[in-house]
Structure formats: structure tokens, C-alpha cells
């Protein structure tokens, strides 16, 4: 009886369930593309009940009787929820999910849909920068946005990048943009320490109207980084593991260095014909046995000092949320062995971002980033301690170690240490020994975090208040040790106290306290407004301590407490603060007509009381023409987006000013052995902000469901009150002080275009091409003591460049080469009046109009192909019309001046006989500075090429995705420049130069590499 009752209950339950269901059917279409094949159809609120559409777009689905709506989704199209109340037949058309129109973009202290933006903003999504094998995020931006020049400082592991937005905006101050990470202003060091895999998106504020909200620090543009926060839409945590491994090598030189025989023959001819060189060495070369012995020890110094660098990275992240909470957590490790021996870089990072809706009116959130970087450094200077100069300077017949005999394997060993004895080469120095015995290490720690509370003012709909506290702590430690008994210690050390150690530590602390009040209100249904009022206080404190010691018992005890003598100690304290208030109003009518207005006032402690506060204003207008009814339905179906933007705004710059520049300072001195004080710097209470005023006009467009999309921007920027050192107006005071000295302008055009050549959803096949182009013109408008006479323009000399009214900033200023006289072999130059002479004079240097390191044209182009799970992407980057002073070529084609060092093979193409036509003159033993080695560094580079495959995992429950990929970077370069054309710093001695790429001087070489990786989602 029990079994019968149970069976009866089950039958009744099944019947009641069947009676409680109904069948809904219909057709799903894709707007402009026909039937939706394989579209997802689920019950809204119960995604366990669902189906997919057939080949003709139809579907049939049994749904619970109480179901209210169905949800339709299809890749590339916006989700749509359709009511089924009162009907069982549906006809649904899905609209394209246009990222261009629906994307929410961070543009300052708020976010806005991109179709409502009326200012110049570029967005780089996480998909564009994920898995790129670089140590810092600066390199990720190259070629990603028009008007943004990104140049690697050099190829050093973990090396920095230079970022310039719409040209150079200052003569001697910093041209770096303002970096903002999750709402906090940070330095480039903090910015570059962030794990690229933590980034959600990067917004680049290019025009003044977009950047004015940051006022005093935004003259050079703004780079906004938003990190991942998780999502309340995902109930299940998304866990991702990424692993990469790859290798790098030096990019190839477009020239060859002399081998053993070529160098000996070169030295012999130079001495016998021109009397240049070493008589003893040349005499030895005449002995066949001696020549044979040098050939047996021959080596390639690039092979000795360089290696194939390797790198690896691992990232584990989890993100998700509930209805009230979302979170993202990650841990990452990156390690790189540089292409130069001993050099290395590693980074460890951790992040926790979370938000919690504590009540209907209160949401609490935090971000926390912790990072550590560790790098082993090499001396990147233009002297004998630089391995990147040594690998060109050392002769191929010079061995790394001292040899007992001509046999290269018969190495002399130190009887005390058992180590091989290094050969000091013709420079009296062994770079191999220095690399081992003069270690230099740098360690940085970063903590970046925020706490915020968002409060809804319940009695006023749309009114919200946010209070936020951000903090950033950076510590830096440098340890440099010259081991006792090392070669360098013999030159610069104290024989009574062998060994030198230097320890430098610094701590940089910054906190930001910010309050924001926002009000969103729609009037009369179609008038949408957004009001923002804010206050911000930033406090900065930096402390540095450096001390040296000498006299160490051995190479293992290198800490300063083991030094016999502590000396050369110093410490500094540096503080500054800023106080700001700002307001912004955004308005749109039916999303057709857009307007915004921004006002900000900044007070900075680095200026005197009279000029402490700067006021910055901007406004913008936009018109979304594609929403207008007058276009007609036929045109509206073809035009996905057509927007005109017009803006003008003012921004400021204080990055070239230290907090105490406004004050007069004194320094300790000595007179006749008596301690005394002297004037160190005069007070400048009249210092004021650099300011930039910039109007901009832009058009955004998209056609055929954005199969073709792009933008055009035109801008003009005038910068006034430029910072630069100037001579103090006092005959008894011979030092310069920082002043506001002039004006400059930038103007340019930017164009970017993307097109889907093929977009076939039936085959799951897409072929996309893209490209960008921009041109920028720069000109100095005024400088101190400018009398307005074009014959005597005001000039600032920077060697080898000048700033002069009427020219681009940092225009090269050199004596002009006139080639070689075929009759005599003399090197010829033009004098200041344009006459040819064979006598060089520095007084004949002239400004080389149009020749500067700043490229006039730059951009990128590439393609992407996706077929089912396979993707193939390639991206090229180019720059045109820029110049670099190639001092490396000058040293390796030195006309006999560097006869003791190795030379390029084409150095042998010098003039020998009357009638010879060549560009290398008769050797004189002296190399003169001229534009002979000023070279165009135009180039086209295959920046990266990547192939990937996403495995089908429909039957693997614990895995959501697996993607494997291989990627090559800097695979090949087309250029006429004698070296790698992506020149950043010439050497560390020029690291602070305001315009990167002015000269090449043996910095860490650029690299190319290959990466293999896997991404697994759980």
C-alpha cells in the first residue's frame, strides 16, 4: 500500500508539473545580418531552463507557467529580455552590442558611456594588453592610441618607458603625463610596478577639456588605470591561472665589427700611411707567428658579455561576487634574466580589490596593491665601466683572461683564489671582472591602497556622496659594492682601506583625501544632467639617506657595519602638498546633444603666496548625428555612429618645480679653512604655473554595424610660462634659478580606423584590419629677452640642441658636414655663412631646422583573424621624420681617433688616393663633431605577432577555458639608421633628458623575443 501511494503521488506530481508548463516558440533575427543561428534562449531568472535557435533562427522552449520573460543572447549583440505574458509566439531582433557606443569609460572622477563623451579620450581595454611579455605597463601603450608616443628607455630588464601625449609641452620640465591608478595620482615608478594582468582598462585623456578635471598636473595629458574589481553578475568565482615562458636576444646591428685580421690590417695601414697608432703593435703584426697567436685567441666580445635572456611569469587571480559584494584578488610573479650577464629583474605583486553593499544607502570598498621589484644593475655610463661600450671597443684579439701561451685554453689562475686572472685589455680595465666584482642591486617596495564609502542620499534620488582615502608608500634601496682587491678598487679606492660600499635608501609617502558629491537628474524625460563637486588634498613626504664606507675585510662582508671608515654621508627631507577643489557639469538631450563644463582650482606649496593657486577651466560640446531622425531609416541602418566633438580647455604643470624652489637657500662652504655659508639659490616668489590652452575638434564614426569605425581629431595647444633655468639678474650672483621664461605650441591631426573585412557568424570567422596615423608640429613661440627681431631670435643652448624662437624645441645645433674632398681626402664643412671649408670651428654650428628627436609622424597598423578557436594577430608600429645623434657610429668610424679600439668594417672605406669618392675622410687621428653622424631614425617595426588557440571544453566541467599561445616581439625592423632606431636614453647620464632619443651612447641594447603561454580558467 505504501508503494502504491508513493507511485500515485509521483504521477500526480508529474502531471501537475506538466500542467504547470507551457510552450513558447518564435524566431530570433540579428539586426542587419539575418537569422540568429545558435542564439541562447533562457528563462529570465532561471537560466537552467533554455535552448538555442536552429539554423533558421527558430526556437521552441517549454517554460514554467509562472515564467514572465525570456532572455536572448548572442555573441557580439546586446542581450534582450522579452516579456511572454499573454503570448506564446515571439519575434525578436537583437541589436549589435557596440562597444563603441555602450562602453563605460573612466574619464576622471566619474565614468560615462562613450557615446556621451564630448572630449578627446582613448581607451585601451584589457584584451588589448593581456599576456604581452613586458615587465611594466608603459610598453603596453605603444601603438595603442593616436597622439601617444611610447619609447622604451632601453632594453634593460624592467626598464622604464617614455610616454609623450600630443608632443613635447615643456622645455626643461617633465613631459611625462599624469598617472592615476584607481583614482590616485602616482609617479611613473609606481605606475610601472603594477602587474599588467590586473588591469581592466586604461583611459588616456588627450585634450585639455578631458584633462582639466586634474588641473595643475594635466598639461602633459593623463593616463588613467582602472584595475579589475570583480562583478556582481557572476555568482561563481572566476579563477584564472596564466603562465608564460620566453627568451630574448639583442636586436641585430646593421653593421659588422672588424675581425682579428681586419683590425690588424687596419692598424697597420693607418700607421704606415698616416702615422696613427702604436708602432710596437704594428711591428708585431708583421710576425706571422704573432698574428697566428692572436687569431687563435680571437673572440667575439658580444658573445662573451651577452647571452640569451629568459623570462617567466605566473599569475593567479579570482574574481566574482554576490548580489551585494564583488571582489578581485591576484598574485603575480615575473622574472627576467637580461641579455647582459648578471643583469636581472624580478617582480612579485599581490592585489585585493573588494566592495560591499552594507545597506541600501551605503557601499564600502577598498583597493590594495603590494609589490616588490628586485634588479641587478650594470653600469650604463659612457666610460670603461659600461659593458655595452666594451663589447664594441674591445678588440677581437684581446682575450677575456690572461693566457700562459697563445693557446686560448691555457688560462692563468690566481694561486691564492684559484680564479682565472682577467685581462685588463687596452683600456687598462676588464669589464668581465667589473661585472663580477662590482655588484649593484636595487630593491623597491610598493604599497598602494584606498578605502572609500559611497553613500546615497535617500531623500534625494540621484544624489550620492563619496569619501575616499588613498595611500602610497614606496621604499627604495640601492647597494653598490666595489670589492676589495678588484680592478676598480685599485683605481678609485684607498690602498689602506680596500673596498668601497655605498648604501642609499629612500622612502616616499603620499596620501590623498578626497570627497565627491554627485547628482544625476533627468528633467522632462529627455534632459539628462550629471553634477560633480569635489575636494582633494594631497600630501607628499620624501626622505633619502645615503652613506659610503671603505675598508672591508673581504668580498663577502659588504654591509657598511663591516667598513673600517664611514664617510660621504648625506640625508634629505622633502615635503610638499596641494589642495584642490573642482566642479563638473555634464548634460545631454536624448543623447543627441552633449555639453560639459569643468572648473578646477589648485593650490601648490611649491609656489609663492602670490601665485600659489591656479585656476583651470574647460568646456566641450558634442553632437550624435546618428540619432537624428532627419537621416531617415535607410541612412540610420548604415550609420552606426557619427559624432562631432568640439572642446577647449586649460591645464597646468608643476612637475618641474620642487617645494623649496620658491625659497632662497644657503649652503655650507669654506674660506681660508674656516667653515662659512654662501648663497646657494635665490628666492623666486614670483614662480607661477606652466599653463596650456588647447582647443580640439574631433569626429567619431562607425558604419554598417560598426564594421568600419574610427575617429579624426585636430588639436592646437599653446603652453605659456614655461619653466627653465635662467640667469639671476645680479652681477654678483653667477648661478641660474628656475623661472617662467617662454611659450611654445603643438598642433596636430590624429586618425584611427578599424574595419571588419569579413564578419561571418555562420563560420565563426572574422578578419579585422586597423591602423592609425598622427602628425604633430611643435614650435617655440617666445623665450627670455626676445626682441621680436627674426634676425636675432632668443636662444637657449642645450648641446647638441637648442631652443630658439621659431623652431621646434630641442632642434639640433651642429656644424654641417660637406662631405669629403675627392682630391685631398680632407673632411669638409660648411661655415656659418654656407661656404665650404676644410677647417672645423665650433663657431660654425647652426640650427638645423626641422631636425629634432621628436617624430613628426607616427602610428600603427595591423590585422587580426579569428576562426573558431584560432586567433592570429599582428601589429606594426612606425615613426617618421625624427633624428638622433649617433655618437656610437662616430666612435666606431672615428677617422683614426679610436685606433686602439675596435672599429666597424666600413671604417676601412676611408679616402686613400686622389679621386676616391667616399664619405669617410683621410684619417687624421681626430674626429670632429658635426651632423655627419646626425641620422634619421625613421623605422617600421613588427611590434608583435601572436597566434593562439582556445580549446573546446564543453564536456570538461571543472574548466571554463584553456587558451595556448605563442607571441614574437620586435621580430624585424625596417630602417636606415645605424643601430636600433627605438632610441630612449643615450645612457644613464642622460636619463633625465626632457626629450628622449636625442643621442645614442651605449645604453642597454634593445631586444627581440619569443613567448609561449597558457591561460586556464576554472
Describe this structure in words.
The chain has 1018 residues and is mainly beta. The chain has a domain at 2-97: Immunoglobulin-like (Sandwich), CATH 2.60.40.1120. Helix content is 10%, strand content 48%. The protein is built from 14 helices and 54 strands. The chain has a 22-stranded antiparallel barrel. A five-stranded mixed β-sheet has the order 11-16-17-14-15. Strands 1, 2, 5 and 8 form a four-stranded mixed β-sheet that branches. A hairpin with a 6-residue loop joins strand 42 and strand 43. Helix 6 (260-274) packs across helix 7 (279-285). It is globular and about 105 Å long. 40% of the residues are buried.
- CATH names the topology of the domain at 2-97 as Immunoglobulin-like
Query: How far do the termini sit from each other?
Result: 49 Å
Architecture of the domain at 2-97, according to CATH?
Sandwich
C-alpha Rg (nearest Å) = 33 Å
According to DSSP, the number of beta strands is 54
Helix content: 10-25%
Q: What is the name of the CATH class of the domain at 2-97?
A: Mainly Beta
* Low-pLDDT segments, ≥5 res: 1-19
Shape: globular
